[in-house]
Every structure is written in C-alpha cells, then in structure tokens.
Amino acid sequence: MAEQTSTANAWPAHPADLIPAGRRRLGWGLLALATLGLLAIIVVQILYKTEMSTVGFDTWRPVIYAYILWGAALGAWQVLTRGEDGQRALFLLPALLFTIAMVIFPTLFGFYIALTDWNLSSFSGRRFNGLDNFWQMLADPYYRNALFNMVLYVLAVLVEYVIAFGLALLLNAQIRARKFFRVVFLLPLMLSPVAVSWMVGKSLMEYRFGPAATLARHLGWDNPAFFSDPITARISIMMLDAWTFIPFMMIMLLAGLQAMSREVLEAARVDGATAWQTFWQVTFPLMLPVSVTAVILRIIFKLKLADIIITLTSGGPGGATDSVSSFIYREYRDRSNVGYGTMLAMAYLVIIIVFVTWLLKFASRFVRNVN
Amino acid sequence: MSVQTTDYTVSEIRSPAAFVASRLFIYGALIFWAFVCLFPIYWTITTSFKSAVDVTQGHLVPFVDFTPDWKGWRSLGLSPDSIFQTSTVRDEFLKRFMNSVITSVGASGLAIIIGSLAAYGLVRYRYKFAWFKNEDISFFFLSQLILPPVVLALPFLVLYREVALLDTRIGLVLLYTLMVLPIVIWIMRDQFNSIPVELEEAALVDGLSIWGAFFRIVMPIALPGMVAAFILAMVLCWNEYFFAALLTSTDAKTIPVMVASQTGSQGINWWSMAALATAAIAPLAVIGIALERYLIMGMTAGSVK
Predict the structure, then answer these.
(1) Among residues 40-79 of chain A, which lie with CB inside 8 Å of chain B?
(2) Which ipTM did the prediction report?
(3) Is B159 within a domain?
(4) Interchain pair B144, A255: CB under 8 A
(5) Which backbone phi and psi does B133 adopt, to 5 degrees?
(6) Which residue of A71, B44, B53, B219 is surrounded by the most CB atoms within 10 Å?
C-alpha cells in the first residue's frame, strides 16, 4: 500500500499538502494498531482452533470485524499521511478491499480444499490427499460429458445471436408500436428463470396436457416428450435458456443499429444495392464490433448456466443435459464431498480462463481486420 | 447511450406488392415473437386460477374454457376470502419474499456505493498500487465477471460455516454484491467518462474538496446511470438461484429457492405453484415495464461508442 501514489491527471498538480508531523505519526500509529489487532485476533483464533489455547471465539466471525476495522484504519492512514492523494485513494479502497477479501482468499482456500478428501457430513473432517481428486477427475466420464455439453451450449449462442439480430432488425424497421414490442421482447430477461422454467418446462411442455405438447402433436410429432431422450432434452434446455437471454443480445444489437449513420445506408441505396446486399456488405460489417461484444458477454453468462438445469432435469436423462455447474452442484448434494467438487470447479475455472483469454484475443484480431 | 427511435427503412421498397409483403412479414414476425414472449407468462397467470381438471385438460382461455377460481391464491393465503385469515403458508411466503427483497436491495445498494466510488476513482485519477496501474485494476474488477458461481460456492460454503454466515441474509448480500460489482463498475465508468471534467475543476476552484465535488456536482449528474445500474443489479440478484440454493436452508431462503422446492408427495399442485411463480415474477415485471428505459441504458453502457 505504501507505494501507492496518485496524481490528478485531469488538472494541474496541486501544491504538495503540508502535513504536520503529528498528523503523520497519528496515521502510522493507527495503522500499526489496527494491523497488530488483526494479527492478534488471527493468532488467538488459530491457537484456539488447534486447541493449543483455551481463549478464543467459537466462530471466526470476529476476524471479519477486525478486517473491516483494519480497512477503515487503512483509509484513515491514507488520508492522514497523504492528504489529498489519500482522499483520492479512498475512492478505490472499499471496492478493492471487498473484492480481495471475497475473491482472492476464497479462491486460494478453494485450491487447498481441492487437494483434500473432505466430507462435510462425516465427523472425520478433512484429510489431505494430494492429487487424488485430480486423477479421479480425469477418469470421470460424467465430468467429461458435462464439459462436452458446455461446448454444445456455447455453440447454441450462435443461433441465439442470429435470432437476436433478426429481432433487432425488426425493431429497427419502420414500425408502429415500437415501444410496446420493445418492452414485450425485453420481458423474458427480467423474469426469474427458475419460476419460468418450472411453469414452462414442467407444465407447458408436460407430456400429457401441456399446450406445447398438444401443439407438437398437431404438427405431426407423435411422441412429444421434451425431456426424455438426450438430444431433445438438450435442445429444450437450450431453448429455455435462449428465451431468457435473447433480449439481452437483442438490446445491445439494437443500440448498435441505431448508432449507425444513415448516410452509409443512403449511399448504398443510391448505388443500387438490394436490401440483401446492403445488409451483408454494409450493415453486418459495421455491426461486427457490437456483435462481438454481445456474443462474448453472452458466452460468459452461458458458462455459468446452472439454475434451469438443476430445477428442471437435474442433469437427466443420464447426465445428458448436465452443465458443469449443475453437475458439481449435484455431486455436492449427493455426496457432500466438497474436496472433489472443488477440484472439478477449479479445473473448470482454469479451462474458462484459458478459453475466454483466447476468445478475447481472437475477437480483437477479427474485429481489427474487418475495420 | 439510450435507444432512440430512428425513422428510416432498412431496405428500399420497389413496388406496392413488395411493400405489402414486407409489411406483412415484419408484423407477422413481430407478433409471432411477442406471442413467444408473452404466452408462458399468460400460461403462468391463468394456471393460478385453474383447478386440477382444467390443468390436466389443457384449458387455455378463462371464462370460455374454464371458470376462474381463486384456488391457487387461496392456497397461498392471498385470495380475497382468505387474506384476512391467518395462514401459515402466507407467513412462509411473506418471509421468503422479504428475504428476496432485503438481499437484492441490500446487495444492489452496496454494489452501487462501492462500485460507483471505485469507477469514479478509476476514471478521474491515476493510481499505482505496487506494479498495478489503472488499467490493471479495472481489468481485475471486470475479470470477476467470468468467475462462475460454482468456483466460489463450495469454498464459501465451508468458510461461511466457520464465520457463522451460513443461512443468513448478510451472507447472501455479500455474495450478491460480489456478483454484480463488475457490472456496476462497467456501467458507472461509462457514466463518469461522459461527464466533462471542467465541472469538477470549477467546483474545486470554488473551494469544494474532492469528495465535496463528487457528492455535490458529479453524483446528481450521474444519478440516471446509478438508477440503471441499480435496476440491472436488482434483476440479477432477485433471480439468483445457485448460491441461494446452496447456502440457505431455513432462515434466509429466497423466493426462487421456495419456488424450486414445491414438489409434494402427490405430485405438483399446479394452481399453487403457478400462484407462487406469478408472485415471484410480478415485482420485476412491474419494475421492468415501468423503468424499461433505465434497463436498456444499463445494458447498452459501453457497448456502443
């Protein structure tokens, strides 16, 4: 923290604040006190939990309070010792301390849990077992199957993109009641996927009486069971998820269409281009940057897909619809083994980071070439 | 940044017949998709007024196919004739509902406060934190977006047990704040970038402190953006299921968890299920329709330059 410096970049530098030495000492004293307090509580807790001492708290919660106090002291230290620069640092500190405490620490802890055999419901507690979970993971056909499903689910984003682009074009055409259609098209995004997937998946698409099944029978599908064979079940899940998230891409694409300059389209028309040519040679290339942003954001959300699968099929039939998240959720629910579940999650995290980094690199090159 | 209406046709229309055909196609497609969006909602709401027979025979239109009945709402204790009687189901429902309200409002509020401050700092000042500069700090915040909930879920389950935050609303609020923080920072950065820096310079010359300028000058201008970010965060928190299902059991259960756990030994009571689903989606549907402008503003922030 001490190395942190900040200078106003927008306006001329202020004369250095004249900070009296007493104020500086107060700041350092406060920080030292808070740091000592935090460390002391942690040490006391560790001794108590490892039964080396009898003084301590039942839970680790006081450590959280100590951390919050330490954060406050850190802010005060910044302001007291560095004046206006410290006040600027104060804008960033809360979010930074919060995110570090909530992400970095649990993730590191997660990597440790991943190396243990830890059944929460048994009394034996955790047992360090090295890379056993990792080897077990490599041999787990259900995990591989879930990863394969994620590939399919991510590919489905392309279909969603085409539909969303079509809807954005429709909303951008000269139509009446544009606002009405926009609100209606946006509605699915706001509704709880769990509630909707229950009502749609379990009743609307119900085999015997659901209107969707009745319609499918009328259209000539004799046996409209949406969730019984692997391929239709996957498609049903994809459709339900698409229903929720198509509006998201649609709104971004619509904003892109409306930001496009009219002159270019006019010019294309004057040159005698047909609507089809105008779209492929003018609209689509101009929309590429927005499209790439929308698709990448959508893929990132898609990688988290879990809730509708958990509530609707719980991965069935035979793991055919499992996403990685829903598989780990069931793995934990069925066996309460946090060690193995965490190993699966950490492996997934690594895969995602590699994939998204590659995607961003690929996309940026792609967009630059077109422009 | 907001979506405006533009008045031009994308394609040139060459003959009256082609004009009519294209109109027919456009409105046909619009109405078809409106049907796709609205029918599940219609089905949910009407089912809450059906009895068992009406559900299993697939009756669709109230008053024509079936006589509506308050059955679903009565089972929740929310129908006109049962609303003044005591009902344990209603108490249970209201408790879950309040949990959802408190966690989503609390998390969105907390995320807006710390997110706006951080976004403002990142836009206006240069930081250097060891070897991390502004771009790295921004990337650190935004990269949280790709972190799937499942990675944090199990470590948090263990940690929350240790700090006695399991099955508490505070615990959920903290996690939801983490979940929406990148989105809030993304939107607010865009907002603060669009505010001319001269305004703050003038305020500083007039003798306001840095924080004074932020609260008195910048915040009022950025308020629409804050509303947009708040609503988007609300939607995400209200509908969140994964963390809530794992980390709550009795006290802090939210509405989606209650909806998902409605299976009885006799199968599913469709009418009460539908009433519950309607109650779960109604608040956001109302907010969404009323504040649609802000929602769109939040979603398009930073994507179109």
Answers:
(1) 58-61, 63-64
(2) 0.87
(3) yes
(4) no
(5) -105, 180
(6) B44
